[in-house]
Amino acid sequence: MNLKAEKHTRIIKQKAKELGFLSCGMSKAEFLEDEAPRLEKWLQQGMHGEMKYMENHFDKRLDPTKLVEGSKSVISLLYNYYPEELQQENSFKISKYAYGRDYHFVIKDKLKNLMQFIQDEIGEVGGRVFVDSAPVLDKAWAKRSGLGWIGKHSNLLTKQVGSFYFIAELIVDLNLEYDTPVTDHCGSCTACIDACPTDAIVEPYVVDGSKCISYFTIELKDDLPNEMAGKFNDWAFGCDICQDVCPWNKFSKAHKEPLFNPDQRLLNYSKKEWEEITEEIFQDIFRKSAVKRTKYNGFKRNVKFLAY
């Protein structure tokens, strides 16, 4: 056993906990052999829809050593976003991950802190931090790092906490002690598949991104397709259906991140208030939120489609 790698791993995990991460796991930076054919097939079948960026950097997506030169380890981290309070019933819904401040900024600051700590404690360590903003297969690395298994809805699942968390990484040129993957605990359950109103989960563990409500309400820039009318279950930004029905999410506990707390209007607005929202109020409620990705006009398009 490499005592230095063991020590480094221990202090990094301890610091991650101090920074508020749910968990932290390590895996060797190497080519993702199992994921390569799956990703290729998914792209060939057009399941990424108009998310053309998914076609870019195919090699880098599968091999972190091509993304970060000299990298030896992938440090995967989970950060809880499950809210204490949910939106009122019978309103247009916003995905829980977008309730508060945009997670990219909140988590990136914490990752930079962790990277700085590694350099201060261990010495000259090179690497990069990632939060859903580069060609990194987050879920595949988290699975390899023993942080959970990929559920039938294609999200990472963890026995103790479910799936309402963000996944982030540090890819570094440091040898660490690597974790082992956990086993799949979905069993014969098909709750997520049965609940999806657009049949986006085309088979267990395969999601057709181009059929997902999140894709329509966030990624798609064109008009929403008429054949989807009445199938969005009031989701105006993103969708949590497959996570909400998952039995493992019974174990979700509220996050302790003040920056993820929502504007009270988000929780309390009625359908009528969302329909009548002005650009000024939209910008105010979602000032530093991921919801701004749709811009005001995209959000209004979604609400109009739901209200039609």
Task: Give a description of the structure.
Cob(II)alamin binds at residues 61, 132, 156, 167, 214, 239-240. Its EC number is 1.17.99.6. Residues 174-206 form the 4Fe-4S ferredoxin-type domain. InterPro entries: 4Fe4S_Fe-S-bd, 4Fe4S_Fe_S_CS, QueG, QueG_DUF1730. Catalyzes the conversion of epoxyqueuosine (oQ) to queuosine (Q), which is a hypermodified base found in the wobble positions of tRNA(Asp), tRNA(Asn), tRNA(His) and tRNA(Tyr). It is a single chain. The chain has 308 residues and is of the alpha+beta class. It folds into two domains: 3-172, no CATH class; 191-252 and 263-307, no CATH class. It has 13 helices and ten strands. The chain has helices at 3-18, 35-44, 58-62, 64-67, 103-122, 138-144, 191-195, 213-219, 241-244, 264-268, 271-275, 279-285, 295-307; strands spanning 23-28, 73-80, 93-94, 127-130, 149-150, 156-157, 165-172, 201-203, 206-207, 235-237. The strands form four sheets. It has a four-stranded antiparallel sheet, with helices on both faces. A hairpin with a 5-residue loop joins strand 5 and strand 6. Helix 1 packs antiparallel against helix 5. The longest helix has 20 residues, at 103-122. The mean pLDDT is 96.
